[in-house]
Amino acid sequence: MAVRSRPSAERGKERAAERAHWPGAAPNEAVAAGCDKIVQELSKVQGVAKVLVAQHDVYKGFLAEELTPLVLATQKQFNYTHICSGASAFGKNLIPRVAAKLDVAPISDIIEIKSPDTFVRTIYAGNVICTVQCDEGVKVFSVCGTSFEAAPPSAGSASVEKIEQKLTESDRPELTSAKVVVSGGRVGASHAAVDAGFVPNDLQVGQTGKIVAPELYIAMGISGAIQHLAWMKDSKTIVAINKDPEAPIFQVADCGLVADLFQAVPEVTELLKKK
Ligand SMILES: Cc1cc2nc3c(=O)[nH]c(=O)nc-3n(C[C@H](O)[C@H](O)[C@H](O)COP(=O)(O)OP(=O)(O)OC[C@H]3O[C@@H](n4cnc5c(N)ncnc54)[C@H](O)[C@@H]3O)c2cc1C
């Protein structure tokens, strides 16, 4: 759920009213992913002005990895001042990711809203209660639902708007089911290459990426760190090209070439084309 920011002129006039009504108020816009019945119910909740709906099979599992880009794209488009979620397993997964991507500190488990930037939250498993003021441009927080009165579920009449998100489309086979995987490392899909922005993270192999075991795995300029190795070592045939003969990737490689990949790869490609 997200609260949309208002234009600054409007904000000044509304601020007093906003303050008076803030504690306990429902957010005025909500983002729903893929559920007609929920959309209908949400649109009737008092205080909700608009429900944004994104429908796609990828959102059915409520995976934070899929939902974070959706929330970020929505934030980019609508420029909300507050983004929140329930303090559930779902919220605990999603909210820190969204906050990290927006480069703001999230506030978790709030039990009271004192003003638009001041919240009460519990720490030490509820043994200490603290009041925090948040000076981030966007307030990202999770809410203990049991600490708030439920908004009346039938007094509202929010509009419903569909939003679209561009999902990664590729004519390549899915990484986990591909028969041949060609991976490039920091030099040229290891974690380092994704971090460097060379490739999207759906191409990352490894502990925090995908597990692969294709017929043929070609590792080019990949050192073979354990976080990469353990998730691709079951590949049927592993070919490694690395200029460092001591690179750990050679310990699991069936076929290794110690060479500069910028020289070796074009040569091998030419040879293969001639075959
Ligand atoms: C919690 C955690 C989770 C992680 N998860 C993952 C994960 O899912 N996947 C993953 O890949 N990593 C993961 N990592 C990171 C991992 O530890 C390594 O840092 C990363 O795999 C290194 O990537 P790299 O081999 O591409 O880069 P580097 O370690 O920089 O190695 C580059 C290699 O390329 C070789 N090279 C350089 N230039 C050339 C050239 N011109 N020709 C030939 N060879 C060359 C070098 O000799 C070197 O061996 C994780 C780390 C942590 C802590």
TrEMBL record:
Residue ranges of every copy of the Electron transfer flavoprotein alpha/beta-subunit N-terminal domain listed in the record: 4-182
Swiss-Prot/TrEMBL cofactor(s): FAD
Localisation: Mitochondrion matrix
Main location: mitochondrion
GO molecular function: electron transfer activity; flavin adenine dinucleotide binding
GO cellular component: mitochondrial matrix
Superkingdom assignment: Eukaryota
Region (Disordered): 1-23
Cofactor note: Binds 1 FAD per dimer.
InterPro entries xrefs: DHS-like_NAD/FAD-binding_dom, ETF_a/b_N, ETF_a/FixB, ETF_alpha_N, ETF_asu_C, Rossmann-like_a/b/a_fold
Cited function: Heterodimeric electron transfer flavoprotein that accepts electrons from several mitochondrial dehydrogenases, including acyl-CoA dehydrogenases, glutaryl-CoA and sarcosine dehydrogenase. It transfers the electrons to the main mitochondrial respiratory chain via ETF-ubiquinone oxidoreductase (ETF dehydrogenase). Required for normal mitochondrial fatty acid oxidation and normal amino acid metabolism.
Subunit structure: Heterodimer of an alpha and a beta subunit. Heterodimer composed of ETFA and ETFB. Identified in a complex that contains ETFA, ETFB and ETFRF1. Interaction with ETFRF1 promotes dissociation of the bound FAD and loss of electron transfer activity. Interacts with TASOR.
Family statement drawn from the similarity comment of this UniProt entry: Belongs to the ETF alpha-subunit/FixB family.
Name assigned to this protein: Electron transfer flavoprotein subunit alpha
Organism, scientific name: Anas zonorhyncha (Eastern spot-billed duck)
Lineage of origin: Eukaryota, Metazoa, Chordata, Craniata, Vertebrata
